[in-house]
Amino acid sequence: MIRCNVKPDNYTYPFLLNSCAALCDLNHGCEVHGRVVKSGFCSIVEVFNALIDMYGKCGKLGCARKVFDEMPQRDVVSYNAVLGAYARVGDDMGDAQMIFDEMPVRNLISWNAMVVGYVNNGDLDSARATFDKMSEKNVVTWTTMLVGYTKNKMMDMAKVLFEAMPEKTLVCWTAMISGYAQNGQPNEALRYFRRMQGVHVKPDAFAMTAVISVLAQLGRPDLANWIMTLVNQEGIERNVKVLTSLVDMHAKCGNIEEACRLFEEIPQPDVYPYSALITGLASHGHGIRALEVFQKMLMAKVEPDYITFVGVLNACSHTGLVDDGLAYWESMINDYKIEPDADHYACVVDMLGRAGRLEQAYKMLKSTPMDPHPAAFGALLAACRTYSNVEIAELVAQELFILEPNNTGNYVLLSGIYAEREQWDEAERVRKAMKKKITAKLPGHSWVESNKYGKVYSGPV
Fold first, then answer.
1. If phi over 0 gives left and psi between -120 and 50 gives alpha, with beta otherwise, what is residue 401?
2. Which pLDDT does position 421 carry in this prediction?
3. Which residue has the higher pLDDT, 373 or 45?
4. Helix (H) or strand (E) segment spanning residue 145
5. Which residues pair with 85 in a beta bridge?
6. Which SUPFAM superfamilies does the entry mention (predicted)?
């Protein structure tokens, strides 16, 4: 058009700017802005609105606000465009509230922008206050508030809101399923999926990925097979995310061959399917195969992350490859610049403990910069029993008594270590300490009504 010397008008520039916004193409958006200035269309409200929208969708809140402030005239679209820019970023919601308050006319889009902005800002109280003031709400309003609650682990509030929703879309059902899954409540997540099926809401790939992650937490092979049948029946797209979730689920459920088969379906696997397969193989006693997959990953030039190394270290622990495991530990820190966390330390401690290198394991455990890991101390205490090392067992047990004061299993284990060494006085001392812990706790009671006899039973839980 430009080469043919056809001059754009006030209708042309909004279309161009909307295209730049849809593509998040800031460079071309700035170029069009320059042409707008040179062409003298700076007084056209529709052009200004398109500029604000373009800068907002490209993440340039400051530029969007500057254009808004320079407008000689504004309409409701102008206000909504700048509020949308604030909402996407989720910052400076105080400024957004001032703009909202000065609006001469507001519509549903204006209110929704404020709810979205406060949710993105993590300010759920202000989001809910705005939500409650709205005389009219649509599915966007309800869904935004619901997603805000689920992402912030406020599942009780999410549940109340969900049940009150006049229209429950697939996005809402998926939000509830994902929310419960991410909050460690897989059975509740599965219950919502069953409810969703009951009202004939068809899942998409995103929803199915959330459900598959739930079943991965439950670790039940029967449910894994059921969801595979459902994926095929519903014609769910087997994209990378779905396949990765299936690999993870089958690996965690112990269906190793199926996990490997699905992994091969992924055309160019990235770090996530590799990590899922490696950790699954390692946790189910296939340490050598896990390390082979890791080598394949490195040959494919896929860079491992911290989850990958949890699987690799776990594999070395179960296969007794201590020196290899320590070499991978050093490589993780020095080559890949990954800061080890409690899980990595726990794997190395377990690996050293299994190999009988108890002093080295204890020193490693005490050198962790983060809070002590009870599972790692527990693994080391078990290793002390295997190798009859009373000295380190006493040190580890004292740590565990502080970390897990009500876990009587630690007392039993230490008592057993003393008994195996025929240190009967020490064994009795630990048993007495355990009995004090048990009697210090008030017993819980459960009232259970019998449907058959109509009687009530009261007894200790």
1. alpha
2. 77
3. 45
4. helix 139-151
5. none
6. TPR-like
CATH (one of 3.30.70.660, 1.10.357.10, 1.25.40.10, 3.40.50.450) for 340-461: 1.25.40.10
Coil, strand, or helix at residue 456?
Answer: strand
Burial class of residue 341 in the structure, from the number of CB atoms within 10 Å of its CB (0-12 exposed, 13-18 middle, 19+ buried): middle
Task: Name the residue ranges covered by the structural domains of the chain.
Answer: 340-461
Count of positions (residues) in the chain: 461
Cβ-based burial of 55 (10 A; exposed 0-12, middle 13-18, buried ≥19)? buried
Q: How far is CA 301 from the centre of its chain?
A: 26
Question: By C-alpha distance, which of 430, 350, 362, 437 is closest to 396?
Answer: 362
Query: Which tokens in the block code for residue 387?
Result: 């190798």
Q: CA–CA separation, 217 vs 57, rounded Å?
A: 37
Q: Kindly report, residue by residue over 154-213, the tens digit of the pLDDT.
A: 999 999 999 999 999 999 999 999 999 988 899 999 999 999 999 999 999 999 999 999
Q: Using CA of residue 230, residue 234, residue 235, residue 240, what is the dihedral sign?
A: negative
Residue with tokens 């409200």: 45
Q: Which element (helix H / strand E) includes 434?
A: helix 424-440
pLDDT band at 437 (very low <50, low <70, confident <90, very high): low
- For residues 231 and 241, the answer to whether their CB atoms sit within 8 Å is no
The beta strands (E) that lie in 103-218 are given as none
Question: Tokens 């002093």 appear where?
Answer: 359
